[in-house]
Fold this protein.
Amino acid sequence: MNAMKRMSAAVLCSVLMLTLILSGCSGKMGESKSEGEAAGKKTKITVWIWEDAKNVIDLNMPEFKKQYPEIDVDLHVLAQSDVYQNFLIAASSSDEVPDVVNLESLRLSQMIETGGLLDITDKVALYKDKMNAYKWADATKDGKIYAMPWDSGPVVMFYRNDLFKQAGLPYKPEDVAAQLKTWDDYMKFAKQLKEKTGVAMLAESKSQTDGVFFQQMLWQRDLWMFGKDGSVQLDNPEVIKTAQYFVDLVKNGYVYEVKPWSDAWYSSFQQNKEATIVGASWYEGLLPTLIDPDASGKWSVVPMPKWSADDKYGSAIDGGANLAINKNSKHPEEAWKFIEFMLGKEESQLKMMKEGGLFPSLETTYNDEVFKGKVPYFNDQPVRTLYIDAVKNVAPITYTKDYPLANELITNAFAEIFLDNKSVESVFKKAAAELRQKTGRK
Protein backbone atom coordinates (compact mmCIF):
# COMPACT_ATOMS: atom_id res chain seq x y z
CA MET A 1 0.00 0.00 0.00
CA ASN A 2 1.67 3.31 -1.11
CA ALA A 3 1.60 6.80 0.45
CA MET A 4 -0.81 8.23 -2.15
CA LYS A 5 -3.45 5.63 -1.35
CA ARG A 6 -3.06 6.20 2.39
CA MET A 7 -3.45 9.98 1.92
CA SER A 8 -6.56 9.59 -0.24
CA ALA A 9 -8.11 7.27 2.26
CA ALA A 10 -7.45 9.61 5.15
CA VAL A 11 -8.94 12.61 3.37
CA LEU A 12 -12.03 10.68 2.39
CA CYS A 13 -12.54 9.40 5.90
CA SER A 14 -12.20 12.83 7.54
CA VAL A 15 -14.78 14.27 5.16
CA LEU A 16 -17.24 11.48 5.80
CA MET A 17 -17.15 11.19 9.60
CA LEU A 18 -15.23 11.08 12.89
CA THR A 19 -13.03 8.51 14.47
CA LEU A 20 -15.29 5.43 14.18
CA ILE A 21 -15.61 5.75 10.44
CA LEU A 22 -11.98 6.71 10.16
CA SER A 23 -10.91 3.50 11.85
CA GLY A 24 -13.19 1.51 9.53
CA CYS A 25 -11.69 3.21 6.51
CA SER A 26 -8.15 2.59 7.62
CA GLY A 27 -8.97 -1.11 8.08
CA LYS A 28 -10.67 -1.56 4.72
CA MET A 29 -10.39 1.29 2.30
CA GLY A 30 -6.71 1.73 3.01
CA GLU A 31 -6.00 -1.53 1.17
CA SER A 32 -5.77 -1.94 -2.55
CA LYS A 33 -8.58 -3.92 -4.18
CA SER A 34 -6.38 -6.91 -4.91
CA GLU A 35 -5.06 -7.04 -1.36
CA GLY A 36 -8.56 -6.85 0.10
CA GLU A 37 -9.78 -9.67 -2.10
CA ALA A 38 -6.79 -11.84 -1.33
CA ALA A 39 -7.26 -11.44 2.42
CA GLY A 40 -10.67 -13.08 2.55
CA LYS A 41 -10.84 -15.21 -0.58
CA LYS A 42 -9.68 -18.77 -1.06
CA THR A 43 -8.47 -20.30 -4.28
CA LYS A 44 -9.97 -23.66 -5.17
CA ILE A 45 -8.02 -26.20 -7.17
CA THR A 46 -9.40 -29.46 -8.50
CA VAL A 47 -7.32 -32.63 -8.56
CA TRP A 48 -8.36 -35.62 -10.66
CA ILE A 49 -7.20 -38.70 -8.81
CA TRP A 50 -8.10 -42.36 -8.35
CA GLU A 51 -9.34 -43.63 -5.00
CA ASP A 52 -6.24 -45.45 -3.72
CA ALA A 53 -4.08 -42.41 -4.43
CA LYS A 54 -6.60 -40.06 -2.79
CA ASN A 55 -6.56 -42.14 0.38
CA VAL A 56 -2.82 -41.59 0.64
CA ILE A 57 -2.98 -37.88 -0.20
CA ASP A 58 -5.61 -37.52 2.53
CA LEU A 59 -2.94 -38.41 5.09
CA ASN A 60 -1.20 -35.11 4.35
CA MET A 61 -4.20 -32.86 3.83
CA PRO A 62 -4.50 -31.61 7.45
CA GLU A 63 -0.91 -30.35 7.37
CA PHE A 64 -1.35 -28.90 3.88
CA LYS A 65 -4.38 -26.91 5.06
CA LYS A 66 -2.36 -25.54 7.97
CA GLN A 67 0.43 -24.38 5.68
CA TYR A 68 -1.84 -23.16 2.87
CA PRO A 69 -5.17 -22.09 4.43
CA GLU A 70 -5.87 -19.96 1.38
CA ILE A 71 -6.03 -22.99 -0.94
CA ASP A 72 -9.06 -25.28 -1.08
CA VAL A 73 -8.39 -28.66 -2.69
CA ASP A 74 -11.14 -30.70 -4.33
CA LEU A 75 -9.83 -34.25 -4.62
CA HIS A 76 -12.17 -35.50 -7.34
CA VAL A 77 -12.10 -39.30 -7.48
CA LEU A 78 -12.32 -41.07 -10.83
CA ALA A 79 -11.52 -44.58 -11.98
CA GLN A 80 -8.02 -44.72 -13.44
CA SER A 81 -9.29 -45.27 -16.97
CA ASP A 82 -11.69 -42.35 -16.58
CA VAL A 83 -8.87 -40.04 -15.49
CA TYR A 84 -7.15 -40.62 -18.82
CA GLN A 85 -10.25 -40.54 -20.99
CA ASN A 86 -11.62 -37.41 -19.36
CA PHE A 87 -8.30 -35.62 -19.50
CA LEU A 88 -7.94 -36.39 -23.20
CA ILE A 89 -11.28 -34.64 -23.67
CA ALA A 90 -10.32 -31.75 -21.36
CA ALA A 91 -6.98 -31.24 -23.10
CA SER A 92 -8.55 -31.16 -26.56
CA SER A 93 -11.20 -28.64 -25.51
CA SER A 94 -8.90 -26.38 -23.44
CA ASP A 95 -10.87 -26.99 -20.25
CA GLU A 96 -9.48 -25.33 -17.12
CA VAL A 97 -10.39 -28.31 -14.94
CA PRO A 98 -8.63 -30.24 -13.57
CA ASP A 99 -5.84 -28.07 -12.22
CA VAL A 100 -3.83 -31.14 -11.22
CA VAL A 101 -4.03 -34.63 -12.70
CA ASN A 102 -2.74 -37.92 -11.28
CA LEU A 103 -1.01 -39.98 -13.98
CA GLU A 104 0.62 -43.40 -13.93
CA SER A 105 4.07 -43.58 -15.49
CA LEU A 106 2.81 -46.09 -18.03
CA ARG A 107 0.40 -43.44 -19.39
CA LEU A 108 2.48 -40.34 -18.83
CA SER A 109 4.20 -40.12 -22.22
CA GLN A 110 0.85 -40.56 -23.94
CA MET A 111 -0.69 -37.72 -21.90
CA ILE A 112 2.25 -35.43 -22.62
CA GLU A 113 1.64 -35.98 -26.33
CA THR A 114 -1.80 -34.35 -25.98
CA GLY A 115 -0.10 -31.00 -25.37
CA GLY A 116 -2.38 -30.47 -22.39
CA LEU A 117 0.21 -30.46 -19.60
CA LEU A 118 2.09 -27.45 -18.26
CA ASP A 119 5.85 -27.20 -18.70
CA ILE A 120 7.22 -27.30 -15.12
CA THR A 121 10.89 -27.66 -15.99
CA ASP A 122 11.97 -24.67 -13.89
CA LYS A 123 9.79 -25.65 -10.95
CA VAL A 124 11.20 -29.18 -10.65
CA ALA A 125 14.83 -28.15 -11.13
CA LEU A 126 15.55 -28.40 -7.39
CA TYR A 127 14.35 -31.99 -7.38
CA LYS A 128 16.05 -33.40 -10.49
CA ASP A 129 18.92 -34.97 -8.56
CA LYS A 130 16.78 -36.09 -5.64
CA MET A 131 14.41 -38.41 -7.49
CA ASN A 132 14.88 -41.83 -9.10
CA ALA A 133 16.60 -40.86 -12.33
CA TYR A 134 14.55 -43.21 -14.53
CA LYS A 135 11.32 -41.50 -13.42
CA TRP A 136 12.15 -38.28 -15.27
CA ALA A 137 12.41 -39.94 -18.69
CA ASP A 138 8.68 -40.53 -19.16
CA ALA A 139 7.97 -37.03 -17.80
CA THR A 140 10.20 -35.38 -20.42
CA LYS A 141 9.65 -34.39 -24.02
CA ASP A 142 12.10 -32.33 -26.11
CA GLY A 143 14.03 -31.41 -22.98
CA LYS A 144 10.96 -30.07 -21.15
CA ILE A 145 9.50 -31.70 -18.03
CA TYR A 146 5.74 -32.00 -17.63
CA ALA A 147 5.22 -33.96 -14.39
CA MET A 148 6.62 -34.45 -10.91
CA PRO A 149 7.42 -38.07 -9.90
CA TRP A 150 5.44 -39.42 -6.99
CA ASP A 151 5.99 -43.07 -6.14
CA SER A 152 8.10 -45.76 -7.73
CA GLY A 153 7.07 -49.36 -8.09
CA PRO A 154 10.17 -51.53 -7.51
CA VAL A 155 9.14 -55.16 -7.91
CA VAL A 156 9.62 -57.84 -5.27
CA MET A 157 7.94 -61.17 -4.60
CA PHE A 158 5.19 -61.33 -2.00
CA TYR A 159 4.43 -64.91 -0.95
CA ARG A 160 2.18 -66.85 1.42
CA ASN A 161 4.56 -68.36 3.95
CA ASP A 162 1.83 -70.64 5.35
CA LEU A 163 1.11 -72.20 1.94
CA PHE A 164 4.81 -72.67 1.24
CA LYS A 165 5.12 -74.41 4.62
CA GLN A 166 2.17 -76.70 3.87
CA ALA A 167 3.86 -77.74 0.63
CA GLY A 168 7.09 -78.62 2.43
CA LEU A 169 8.89 -75.69 0.81
CA PRO A 170 11.20 -73.21 2.53
CA TYR A 171 8.96 -70.57 4.06
CA LYS A 172 11.12 -68.22 6.12
CA PRO A 173 12.20 -65.14 4.10
CA GLU A 174 15.92 -65.82 4.45
CA ASP A 175 15.48 -69.42 3.27
CA VAL A 176 13.15 -68.55 0.39
CA ALA A 177 15.53 -65.81 -0.78
CA ALA A 178 18.41 -68.30 -0.72
CA GLN A 179 16.62 -71.07 -2.61
CA LEU A 180 14.26 -69.19 -4.94
CA LYS A 181 16.73 -67.02 -6.83
CA THR A 182 15.81 -67.64 -10.46
CA TRP A 183 12.73 -68.21 -12.58
CA ASP A 184 13.78 -71.85 -12.92
CA ASP A 185 13.59 -72.04 -9.13
CA TYR A 186 10.18 -70.38 -9.27
CA MET A 187 8.95 -73.08 -11.65
CA LYS A 188 10.26 -75.82 -9.32
CA PHE A 189 8.54 -74.23 -6.32
CA ALA A 190 5.35 -73.98 -8.36
CA LYS A 191 5.50 -77.68 -9.23
CA GLN A 192 5.88 -78.80 -5.62
CA LEU A 193 3.26 -76.36 -4.39
CA LYS A 194 0.72 -77.67 -6.91
CA GLU A 195 1.50 -81.32 -6.21
CA LYS A 196 1.37 -81.02 -2.42
CA THR A 197 -1.46 -78.52 -1.91
CA GLY A 198 -3.25 -78.01 -5.22
CA VAL A 199 -2.56 -74.28 -4.93
CA ALA A 200 -1.34 -72.28 -7.95
CA MET A 201 1.82 -70.21 -7.79
CA LEU A 202 0.14 -67.05 -9.09
CA ALA A 203 -3.12 -65.72 -10.50
CA GLU A 204 -3.32 -64.56 -14.11
CA SER A 205 -5.53 -64.73 -17.16
CA LYS A 206 -4.79 -66.48 -20.42
CA SER A 207 -7.04 -64.35 -22.60
CA GLN A 208 -7.29 -61.16 -20.52
CA THR A 209 -3.85 -60.79 -19.01
CA ASP A 210 -2.74 -57.26 -18.18
CA GLY A 211 0.73 -58.26 -19.39
CA VAL A 212 2.43 -57.05 -16.22
CA PHE A 213 3.97 -60.36 -15.12
CA PHE A 214 5.55 -60.89 -18.53
CA GLN A 215 6.72 -57.27 -18.74
CA GLN A 216 8.38 -57.46 -15.33
CA MET A 217 10.53 -60.33 -16.53
CA LEU A 218 11.43 -58.32 -19.62
CA TRP A 219 12.32 -55.21 -17.62
CA GLN A 220 14.71 -57.00 -15.27
CA ARG A 221 16.52 -58.40 -18.31
CA ASP A 222 16.87 -54.91 -19.81
CA LEU A 223 14.44 -55.93 -22.56
CA TRP A 224 11.28 -54.11 -23.55
CA MET A 225 8.70 -53.80 -26.31
CA PHE A 226 11.00 -51.18 -27.84
CA GLY A 227 14.77 -51.03 -28.02
CA LYS A 228 17.00 -48.17 -26.94
CA ASP A 229 16.89 -46.96 -30.55
CA GLY A 230 13.08 -47.03 -30.55
CA SER A 231 12.81 -50.17 -32.66
CA VAL A 232 10.10 -52.78 -32.09
CA GLN A 233 11.42 -55.75 -30.11
CA LEU A 234 8.44 -58.11 -29.81
CA ASP A 235 10.12 -60.52 -32.23
CA ASN A 236 13.47 -60.39 -30.41
CA PRO A 237 14.37 -64.05 -29.65
CA GLU A 238 14.96 -63.23 -25.97
CA VAL A 239 11.56 -61.53 -25.71
CA ILE A 240 9.96 -64.60 -27.29
CA LYS A 241 11.84 -66.86 -24.87
CA THR A 242 10.52 -64.82 -21.94
CA ALA A 243 6.95 -65.07 -23.25
CA GLN A 244 7.42 -68.83 -23.62
CA TYR A 245 8.24 -69.06 -19.91
CA PHE A 246 4.87 -67.54 -19.00
CA VAL A 247 3.10 -69.87 -21.44
CA ASP A 248 4.85 -72.89 -19.91
CA LEU A 249 3.86 -71.77 -16.42
CA VAL A 250 0.22 -71.62 -17.50
CA LYS A 251 0.23 -74.90 -19.45
CA ASN A 252 1.83 -76.72 -16.52
CA GLY A 253 -1.17 -75.76 -14.39
CA TYR A 254 0.73 -73.45 -12.05
CA VAL A 255 -1.43 -70.39 -12.76
CA TYR A 256 -4.93 -69.80 -11.39
CA GLU A 257 -7.08 -68.50 -14.23
CA VAL A 258 -8.64 -65.15 -13.33
CA LYS A 259 -8.59 -61.66 -14.78
CA PRO A 260 -6.27 -59.37 -12.76
CA TRP A 261 -8.09 -56.80 -10.59
CA SER A 262 -11.51 -58.33 -11.19
CA ASP A 263 -13.84 -59.20 -8.29
CA ALA A 264 -12.93 -62.84 -8.81
CA TRP A 265 -9.24 -61.94 -8.57
CA TYR A 266 -9.76 -60.25 -5.21
CA SER A 267 -11.80 -63.20 -3.95
CA SER A 268 -9.18 -65.71 -5.03
CA PHE A 269 -6.79 -64.56 -2.31
CA GLN A 270 -9.26 -65.25 0.48
CA GLN A 271 -9.89 -68.65 -1.14
CA ASN A 272 -6.16 -69.53 -1.06
CA LYS A 273 -6.02 -70.02 -4.82
CA GLU A 274 -2.48 -68.67 -5.30
CA ALA A 275 0.67 -68.29 -3.23
CA THR A 276 2.66 -65.42 -4.74
CA ILE A 277 2.36 -61.94 -6.16
CA VAL A 278 5.33 -60.79 -8.15
CA GLY A 279 4.54 -57.14 -7.89
CA ALA A 280 5.43 -53.61 -6.95
CA SER A 281 6.12 -52.24 -3.49
CA TRP A 282 2.68 -50.62 -3.42
CA TYR A 283 1.16 -54.03 -2.70
CA GLU A 284 2.32 -53.34 0.85
CA GLY A 285 -0.55 -50.91 1.15
CA LEU A 286 -3.10 -52.92 -0.86
CA LEU A 287 -2.67 -56.36 0.71
CA PRO A 288 -3.75 -55.43 4.24
CA THR A 289 -6.52 -53.08 3.13
CA LEU A 290 -8.09 -54.36 -0.09
CA ILE A 291 -6.63 -57.65 -1.28
CA ASP A 292 -6.15 -59.91 1.76
CA PRO A 293 -6.94 -58.01 4.97
CA ASP A 294 -7.48 -61.16 7.07
CA ALA A 295 -4.09 -62.70 6.26
CA SER A 296 -1.82 -60.69 8.54
CA GLY A 297 1.35 -62.64 9.31
CA LYS A 298 0.80 -65.05 6.41
CA TRP A 299 2.55 -62.94 3.79
CA SER A 300 6.30 -62.44 3.53
CA VAL A 301 8.55 -60.69 1.00
CA VAL A 302 11.73 -61.63 -0.86
CA PRO A 303 13.53 -60.23 -3.93
CA MET A 304 12.07 -60.84 -7.35
CA PRO A 305 13.50 -63.99 -9.01
CA LYS A 306 16.09 -63.35 -11.73
CA TRP A 307 16.22 -64.85 -15.19
CA SER A 308 19.78 -65.89 -14.44
CA ALA A 309 21.56 -65.66 -11.08
CA ASP A 310 24.36 -63.55 -12.56
CA ASP A 311 22.10 -61.04 -14.38
CA LYS A 312 23.13 -57.41 -14.00
CA TYR A 313 19.69 -56.21 -12.95
CA GLY A 314 17.73 -57.90 -10.21
CA SER A 315 14.39 -56.15 -10.28
CA ALA A 316 11.85 -54.34 -12.42
CA ILE A 317 9.35 -51.51 -12.16
CA ASP A 318 5.58 -51.77 -12.18
CA GLY A 319 3.83 -48.47 -12.67
CA GLY A 320 4.34 -45.71 -10.18
CA ALA A 321 2.53 -42.40 -10.36
CA ASN A 322 3.12 -38.69 -11.02
CA LEU A 323 1.29 -35.39 -10.61
CA ALA A 324 1.01 -32.88 -13.44
CA ILE A 325 -0.62 -29.49 -14.01
CA ASN A 326 -3.22 -28.79 -16.68
CA LYS A 327 -1.77 -26.27 -19.13
CA ASN A 328 -5.09 -24.42 -19.10
CA SER A 329 -5.42 -24.21 -15.32
CA LYS A 330 -6.26 -20.75 -13.98
CA HIS A 331 -4.33 -21.54 -10.80
CA PRO A 332 -0.96 -23.01 -11.81
CA GLU A 333 0.92 -21.52 -8.85
CA GLU A 334 -1.52 -22.98 -6.32
CA ALA A 335 -1.43 -26.27 -8.21
CA TRP A 336 2.35 -26.32 -7.94
CA LYS A 337 2.23 -25.56 -4.21
CA PHE A 338 0.02 -28.62 -3.79
CA ILE A 339 2.32 -30.84 -5.85
CA GLU A 340 5.50 -29.61 -4.20
CA PHE A 341 4.05 -30.08 -0.70
CA MET A 342 2.95 -33.64 -1.42
CA LEU A 343 5.90 -34.87 -3.48
CA GLY A 344 8.87 -32.63 -2.73
CA LYS A 345 8.49 -32.52 1.04
CA GLU A 346 10.22 -35.42 2.79
CA GLU A 347 7.77 -35.46 5.69
CA SER A 348 4.85 -35.82 3.28
CA GLN A 349 6.45 -38.66 1.35
CA LEU A 350 7.45 -40.49 4.52
CA LYS A 351 3.93 -40.31 5.89
CA MET A 352 2.58 -41.73 2.63
CA MET A 353 5.17 -44.52 2.88
CA LYS A 354 4.57 -45.38 6.52
CA GLU A 355 0.79 -45.18 6.54
CA GLY A 356 -0.08 -45.72 2.88
CA GLY A 357 2.61 -48.09 1.60
CA LEU A 358 3.68 -45.89 -1.34
CA PHE A 359 7.42 -46.14 -1.95
CA PRO A 360 8.68 -42.62 -2.77
CA SER A 361 10.70 -41.62 -5.81
CA LEU A 362 12.30 -39.02 -3.53
CA GLU A 363 15.61 -40.71 -2.69
CA THR A 364 16.50 -38.30 0.13
CA THR A 365 13.91 -40.13 2.24
CA TYR A 366 15.64 -43.51 2.05
CA ASN A 367 17.83 -43.02 5.11
CA ASP A 368 14.84 -42.52 7.36
CA GLU A 369 14.13 -45.10 10.06
CA VAL A 370 10.73 -45.85 8.52
CA PHE A 371 12.48 -47.96 5.89
CA LYS A 372 14.10 -50.12 8.57
CA GLY A 373 10.93 -50.59 10.58
CA LYS A 374 9.16 -53.90 11.07
CA VAL A 375 5.80 -54.18 9.30
CA PRO A 376 3.25 -56.12 11.42
CA TYR A 377 1.22 -57.40 8.47
CA PHE A 378 4.33 -59.11 7.08
CA ASN A 379 5.07 -60.93 10.33
CA ASP A 380 7.23 -58.00 11.51
CA GLN A 381 9.56 -58.33 8.53
CA PRO A 382 11.40 -55.06 7.64
CA VAL A 383 10.24 -55.35 4.04
CA ARG A 384 10.99 -51.77 2.98
CA THR A 385 14.75 -52.36 2.87
CA LEU A 386 14.00 -54.73 -0.01
CA TYR A 387 12.36 -51.93 -1.98
CA ILE A 388 15.45 -49.74 -1.69
CA ASP A 389 17.67 -52.59 -2.89
CA ALA A 390 15.26 -53.28 -5.75
CA VAL A 391 14.98 -49.70 -7.01
CA LYS A 392 18.78 -49.48 -7.12
CA ASN A 393 18.90 -52.51 -9.41
CA VAL A 394 16.52 -51.73 -12.23
CA ALA A 395 17.30 -51.12 -15.87
CA PRO A 396 16.67 -47.53 -17.07
CA ILE A 397 13.66 -48.31 -19.24
CA THR A 398 10.85 -45.92 -20.19
CA TYR A 399 7.29 -46.79 -21.15
CA THR A 400 7.03 -44.36 -24.13
CA LYS A 401 3.86 -43.01 -25.73
CA ASP A 402 3.25 -46.23 -27.65
CA TYR A 403 3.14 -48.42 -24.55
CA PRO A 404 -0.70 -48.66 -24.42
CA LEU A 405 -0.83 -49.97 -27.99
CA ALA A 406 2.04 -52.40 -27.43
CA ASN A 407 0.41 -53.69 -24.25
CA GLU A 408 -2.87 -54.24 -26.06
CA LEU A 409 -1.10 -56.25 -28.75
CA ILE A 410 0.63 -58.36 -26.08
CA THR A 411 -2.72 -59.13 -24.44
CA ASN A 412 -4.12 -60.16 -27.83
CA ALA A 413 -1.03 -62.23 -28.54
CA PHE A 414 -1.33 -64.31 -25.37
CA ALA A 415 -5.05 -64.81 -26.00
CA GLU A 416 -4.28 -66.12 -29.47
CA ILE A 417 -1.54 -68.41 -28.14
CA PHE A 418 -3.76 -69.96 -25.47
CA LEU A 419 -7.13 -70.01 -27.21
CA ASP A 420 -5.95 -71.01 -30.68
CA ASN A 421 -2.99 -73.11 -29.51
CA LYS A 422 -0.53 -71.20 -31.67
CA SER A 423 3.21 -70.95 -31.13
CA VAL A 424 4.68 -68.06 -29.18
CA GLU A 425 7.17 -67.31 -31.94
CA SER A 426 4.62 -67.04 -34.74
CA VAL A 427 2.19 -64.91 -32.77
CA PHE A 428 4.82 -62.52 -31.42
CA LYS A 429 6.31 -62.07 -34.88
CA LYS A 430 2.88 -61.15 -36.17
CA ALA A 431 2.36 -58.74 -33.26
CA ALA A 432 5.73 -57.12 -33.97
CA ALA A 433 4.77 -56.54 -37.59
CA GLU A 434 1.47 -54.97 -36.55
CA LEU A 435 3.20 -52.72 -34.01
CA ARG A 436 5.64 -51.53 -36.67
CA GLN A 437 2.83 -50.85 -39.10
CA LYS A 438 0.77 -48.86 -36.57
CA THR A 439 3.61 -46.83 -35.07
CA GLY A 440 5.97 -46.34 -37.98
CA ARG A 441 8.84 -47.73 -35.91
CA LYS A 442 11.47 -49.98 -37.40
